[in-house]
Write a structure and sequence with these properties.
- The complex is a heterodimer.
- By secondary structure, chain A is of the alpha+beta class.
- Chain A has a single domain, classed as SCP2 sterol-binding domain (Nonspecific Lipid-transfer Protein, Chain A, 2-Layer Sandwich), CATH 3.30.1050.10.
- In chain A, a hairpin with a 4-residue loop joins strand 1 and strand 2.
- Chain B is an alpha/beta fold.
- In chain B, helix 3 links the parallel strand 3 and strand 4.
- In chain B, helix 1 runs parallel beside helix 10 and helix 3 crosses helix 4.
- The chains are: A alpha+beta, B alpha/beta.
């Protein structure tokens, strides 16, 4: 599974203002996977600011967690920042990749409050993929699952 | 009942990891509760009552076992928490608990006489006299042997004890002063034996700088990785330090244990179970590693004489390993 944005697109994306990108991300997140995550214990994460830095696109997403889902934040200081490529973030989200393996290979960087970063990682690991999948609309869910099944066959056969 | 032979014991830090282990062929899964009663006490990791009940149900439905690690040392003011964890394990129908503290063993034996007890690697019993002592006094039925003995020494233990012997087969290595290592407390005030983690998340800071990624433990710089270098876990033992003008891994280099090629020998000497390290790892790791070890153990049981680790297995295991090399550890050691 290859997912590397062309250099020209990456340059363009990096120039986009961060807030609309964060807003689009938070909205998409809230419309899909939030349903399956809202029962988690988000207490320790309230009022903390997160940054997801997609290294190869230059995009940085800033957000916090509120009672109704993710809330887009303006660019600035984050309590914890996750940095990886688009491909590696996608593989992590699809549960194809182990975060520690990426860390050993210098493909995942967690800067800032490590404990907060670990908490998020472990909380998300604790949610079953099928549960996440069920929160996507039918067609989209089936598509996501097909991509994952294919990658699993390729990687672990 | 005959002693088990080469059971596959896999780690789970979450319910999806437990299911991944069961689905990919683990005979038993070991786990811990969400507090410092076990040595993988990381934020957001481990099992609450609901996940524990579902995990036990899932594993038992497929005829697999679930073991609970209660392998840290209670302090006088917090003893109740450890005793309650023993009660929780008994009530939830765990197949065994893995203990290091003799006081807790006595409690378990008295309060839950039918609960099976394993001696944790943290108990640091490296000879058969010690293991037999735990067997006679607390009814320990299995011991996880510290990673400091050579395989001939392990064989000598197996021959002189009625206790099943479990060995680590794969995963991260440390300085192997198991149950007695206080190194991390010098930097962050917490040691794994009481806090349940060597380098608690609150003490760890990673930062990308122009000269590389820096790892700090409570402010103390313990390593700086150039861009091409693989990183290790942020523990003091695996840091690089300046000693007499030279900066290097003064204690040990991050390395993974991988004993696949010793499986025929472990089979021959009657090792009851092989443990895979990594309760802090994700379900993806558990699935990948369990799959390889299931295939390898099945192959060695079919025909130990012709067993050879497949290159694809080694590639898969190396991929998820800490450090850029793997080792047989002390198991292969010509000197005594």
């Amino acid at each position: 599974m290859k997912l590397t944005p062309p250099a020209a697109l990456a340059k363009l994306l990096a120039r986009l203002p961060a807030y609309p990108a964060s807003l689009a991300f938070a909205t998409a997140f809230n419309l899909t996977v939030w349903k399956s995550l809202q029962d988690l214990d988000w207490e320790a994460l309230q009022e903390r600011r997160f940054c997801v830095h997609v290294r190869d696109t230059g995009i940085k997403l800033w957000f916090s967690v509120a009672t109704s889902g993710l809330k887009a934040e303006k660019a600035g200081q984050a309590d914890v920042t996750f940095t990886a490529t688009l491909m590696d973030f996608t593989r992590l989200a699809l549960r194809l990749e182990d975060p520690d393996t990426l860390f050993f290979n210098r493909r995942l960087l967690i800067e800032g409050d490590t404990d907060l970063g670990l908490r998020v990682k472990n909380m998300l690991d604790g949610v079953e993929f099928e549960t996440l999948l069920a929160s996507f609309p039918g067609v989209l869910g089936r598509l996501v699952n097909r991509v994952r099944e294919r990658a699993l066959r390729e990687g672990m056969a | 009942m005959p002693k088990p032979l080469l059971e596959l014991i896999c780690p789970a830090g979450s319910l999806p990891a437990l299911k991944a282990a069961v689905d990919h062929g683990a005979d038993s899964v070991y786990l811990g509760l969400k507090d410092n009663t076990n040595a993988r006490n990381f934020s957001g990791l481990n099992f609450d009552a609901k996940a524990l009940a579902e995990g036990v149900r899932y594993a038992h439905a497929k005829n697999r076992k679930v073991l609970m690690a209660l392998n840290t040392y209670p302090q006088p003011t917090t003893l109740k928490r450890w005793q309650q964890a023993v009660d929780t394990a008994a009530t939830a129908g765990l197949d065994a608990i893995i203990l290091a503290d003799p006081g807790l063993m006595a409690y378990a034996m008295k309060t839950h006489p039918h609960l099976r007890l394993h001696l944790s690697v943290q108990g640091s019993a490296t000879n058969y006299e010690a293991i037999n002592f735990y067997h006679e006094h607390f009814g320990i039925q299995r011991a996880v042997v510290p990673r400091v003995l050579s395989l001939p020494q392990v064989e000598n233990v197996v021959q002189h004890t009625p206790v099943e012997i479990e060995l680590f087969g794969f995963g991260g290595l440390c300085v192997m002063v198991e149950g007695r290592c206080l190194l991390s407390s010098y930097a962050c005030g917490d040691s794994p034996n009481t806090f349940g983690a060597c380098s608690p998340g609150h003490a760890v800071r990673w930062q990308q700088t122009p000269t590389g990624m820096e790892t700090r433990l409570n402010g103390v710089l313990i390593d700086r990785y150039a861009d091409h270098e693989k990183a290790g876990y942020p523990t003091l033992c695996k840091g690089r330090f300046e000693v007499q003008g030279e900066t290097y891994y003064a204690l040990e280099e991050p390395t993974s244990l991988n004993t696949l090629e010793m499986l025929p020998e472990m089979h021959r000497i009657g090792i009851a179970a092989i443990k895979i390290e990594g309760r802090q790892r994700s379900p993806a790791y558990v699935a990948q590693v369990t799959q390889v070890w299931r295939a390898a153990i099945d192959a060695v049981k079919r025909n130990p004489a012709t067993f050879k680790p497949q290159p694809a297995w080694l590639t898969q295991l190396d991929k998820v390993s800490e450090g850029s090399m793997h080792t047989l550890g002390a198991y292969y050691r010509p000197w005594k």
